[in-house]
Amino acid sequence: MIFSRPVAMAAAVFAAAFLAPSSEAVPQIPGMSQDEVQAKMNEAMKKWTEDEQKKRDSREAEIAAVNAKEQEWVKANLLFSMTGFVVDDRTVSTKDKATKKKIKLTIANIKTVAGKEEEAKETLKSIVVGNMIAYKRLGGDDDNRIVELWTVEGKHVANQMVEAGVSEKTEEYSDVVGDDVMEVRKAKDMDRREQEMLAEEEEKRKKAKAAAEEKAAKAAETAKGEF
């Protein structure tokens, strides 16, 4: 099929111009009236707006799903309490929420680095004393519980102790999360998904640009063939 030179030029311009639609001044395109160009621009802008709304809706639905999943897990696995005081380098004192009895919570799967017992105790104090905590019971008895422990925001206390250089990891219990939960985990999940979405969008943009360039090149080649 042979195109006239103005139509070939218009095809090349549209292929590049409407990858990122804009509502600014109407460009001059040979072979097309201003009304026709404006109509094409409006159509492109409408599609872009609809696509952006779909992205927002998708993100909101994903956030809601992440929140629901996390809330369900928290309800099934965690208990909450206010820290009383630090007993030693791995143990905190608190009250059972139901019975109001004083209990001790010993952090599982870590051991204190030799010679750093006091430093570990002070580190634990700085993380939990005066704050709400969340824990998952792993063993022990009602008065002395072995637990996986988090701050109320969801930061994993054992990992913080290890990162501070006062504790080392052990593998005493296997039924552990071993990482942050609640708000901290949700934020990490959404950041990860955001990066994935950005990568997907960049890949689509590259493909669209390549397709537009190919279309423009074919249009230009067709126009050359007329002479």
What is the compact description of this entry?
This protein has 227 residues and is of the alpha+beta class. The chain contains five helices and eight strands; from the N terminus they run H-H-E-E-E-E-E-H-E-E-H-E-H. The strands form two sheets. A six-stranded mixed sheet has the order 1-6-7-4-3-2.
What does this protein look like?
The model is unreliable at 1-16 and 18-23 (pLDDT under 50). The protein is of the alpha+beta class and 227 residues long. Helix content is 52%, strand content 18%. It is elongated and about 85 Å long. The chain has helices spanning 5-17, 34-77, 117-128, 157-163, 182-224; strands at 79-82, 85-86, 91-95, 102-107, 110-112, 132-140, 144-151, 167-169. A six-stranded mixed sheet has the order 1-6-7-4-3-2. Strands 5-8 form a two-stranded antiparallel ribbon.
